[in-house]
Amino acid sequence: MKKLWILILSLAVLFMSGCERRPTPTAPGETAGNGITELTIWTTDEPRFFESLGREFASQIGAANLRFKVVTFEEDIEMQQVIVNSLSEGLGPDIIFTDGEWIAGNPRKLTMAKVESGFTPDNFRNTFVQSANDALLVGETGILGVPMAVDSLALLFNDEHLTDRLPDRNTPSTTWEGLREDAAVLSKKDNSFERFTVSGVALGRTDNINYGAEIIENIMLQSGVEFFDASQTLATFDKTEAVAAGGRKVNAGVEAVNFYTSFADERYKNHSWNAALADSSTTDKDLRTFAKGKTSMVFAKAQDLPRLQAIIDDLEATNEDPIDDDNIRVAFLPQVEDPQISPNRKVVGDVKALAVTRDSKFPDTAWRFLKFAIQKDNLQKWHEETLMPSPRLDLLLEQEQVPLVGIYVRQAKFARANLMPIPKAYFYEALKPGVEAINAGRMSSERALETSAFTVSKILQQEISRAKSIER
User: Fold this and answer.
1) pLDDT tens across 369-388, in order?
2) Among residues 263, 351, 376, 444, which is most buried (max CB within 10 A)?
3) pTM of the predicted model, to two decimals?
4) Are 204 and 272 in contact (CB under 8 A)?
């Protein structure tokens, strides 16, 4: 199957999937021969875990005839596109494992839980972290799905570099402005092709940085940017006015983009990144640069920690000299406002969740499985498998003690879901061409952000029209 790529066409055309046609999926709830009832799960992650969990569930409820079919997709956005078409034809899965924001934005494609003793919105709210409540609860009455994990961006740093260059504290700054100063001190420039002996931080571009657009989203959120209007029909992240230091009025979205791209601009003292420091055609991108010890700091999620270790192992196997495991540290995501002054840290929480689709012919059994999946032991197993923090409050204290994971777990406690009326991937993809145009000097940050917002608004209108046509 070809990998789905999201395309932006002339500021207006909806992103389209480009994967090969799959075999027609088994209609949900069909009998898969010999009297065996089959429940289908669609996922992009951990198919073996769900297969094993399905067997345990069937054994526990004494359903010897129950089987789980797990269908794996390469990307969430691909799966989400396919499910929309499949549901319109009555061929969707029973259960989908995807991001909580998509679940929050598509309640009509799902079967909500039956509120019953022990499983109510109030109990849900008291059991799980805030970002899970943001994404999966509908007011005071409805539960759309159940969370398996909540991840967020944090700052990985090379302790050896900071001990050498920032001996007064040995840790990154807690603010973005402070990080700008750190980058200037940590970067060591030379006359090589890459222009750096050591890059201070991987920031400034979106083509060869894994989470460039998500970093901008976090900075915007912390800056008070309103991403959409009150009716959720128009993108407004290019228009939010804010008051800067000294009372000066600024465009908060433009300021966020200006700050971000300055790290890839030679005119600024915090210049610390360029196109040569990481290969944009690979999935590793800036994470491999960090593993090589070539950059002092990089932004990553808890789910990237096993991947980072695999890169280090690969470098060692090819006789390269990677970062020493003992030098890898994690710091909180920097903030616009100093955390010592402002009481609230703001971090986007990425909720990974299970939901039951409207096509399931066995919604009660499917929901029984979801409730089984979020039992304490099962969520602990998921954490051990993926390293992503649990959404269950009663598991976080123990997980906080795990090396490298602790900061992510602490962020999970206060992270919030930044819900959007379109799949978040579309927002990210709309930002990238604008950032690349700024990097190349082809467009001002004001024009680039305006263009990105126009694209998102156009996509949103098309999504609204498409949803109405499907409902008819």
Assistant:
1) 999 999 999 999 999 999 99
2) 351
3) 0.91
4) yes
